[in-house]
Amino acid sequence: MNGEPNMAPAAADTDKRKLWLVVAAEMVALAVAIAAAITFDLGWIGGILIVVMVAVFTVMIVRAGESRARSLGNFSEAMGRYNRRMLAASAVYVVGLFGAIWAHDELSLPTAGAFLVALAPSIGVLMMVAAMARLIVEETDEYLRHRYVRSSLFGLGTLLTLATIWGFFEQFDLVPHAPSWMAVPVFALGLGIAHCGRWGRE
Amino acid sequence: MNNRLKVLRAERDWSQQDLADRLQVSRQSVNAIETGKYDPSLPLAFRIADIFELTIEQIFNPKG
Asked: Per-residue pLDDT tens for A79-131?
């Protein structure tokens, strides 16, 4: 970087270490929990245990990420609201998904009820899409907004590219069917790649 | 686009964060503008010019 060094390099380094430590701890804890769930055949309890653990670590990662962003001088109130909305949306998604799976397996539903149940996991995902849109609308820092829009366009490009290629592969029976709910995870993957690319450059 | 932001800051002994606080933007924004990675919008360019009590042309050079 040609400009002035970071505002508080020591704090930024400490926050960076903290962030990576939390990510590493989550990976280890997740691996142990999955191994325990499989070994001891914990079933639903194991699944819920893993989800709760992922939720706790996600909150920790978001907080560590915010702390690092503050020390680097690129945190904004809009980003804070976005993070909280995404956490809430993730919680709604998990509840909706597990609820829908349970209702689908355990209840005998009429067609309208089945549609409503199948819609439940989408609510959390739509909340995430709304959170992304609100971030672009609410971000008052034009450079941060510009960065986020560029990353979003990269995510969109990734989605359109992969969906088109996969769609034609599928059409010619070369690959298995990909469910359309994968659109948001693929977009998020592209968004993540764009963020990582920017971190690398900066 | 070239600019004199770094020099103007140095003359006033302001850090990037000081300028960012005055402009009500992130320090990353100031850094990106200063290093030419990002060209500010016209409203932001006017705010920068106001803070340094100069014209936009005295700070930004489009031929850079």
From this structure: 999 999 999 998 899 899 889 988 998 998 898 999 999 999 999 999 999 99
Cβ–Cβ gap A143/B35 under 8 Å: no
Distance CA A75, CA A65 (A): 9
Q: How far apart are CA B60 and CA A123, in angstroms?
A: 47
Taking CB atoms and an 8 Å cut-off, how many pairs form between chains A and B?
Answer: 53
Determine how many CB atoms are found less than 10 A away from the CB of residue A174.
9
Which chain B residue's Cα is nearest to A2? B35
Give the three-class secondary structure for B2.
strand
**pLDDT tops 90 at residue A73:** no
Q: CB-CB: which of B16, B24, B28 is closest to A143?
A: B28
| Structural contact between residues A137 and A149, judged by C-beta atoms closer than 8 angstroms | no
Across the interface, which of B16, B17, B25 has its CB nearest the CB of A143?
B25
| Alpha-helix runs per DSSP H in chain A | 9-39, 43-72, 77-106, 111-138, 142-171, 183-201
Locate A172 and state its tokens. 């010619």
Among A18-27, A111-120, B17-26, B37-46, name the one with the lowest average pLDDT. A18-27
| Pairwise CB contact (< 8 Å): A142 & B25 | yes
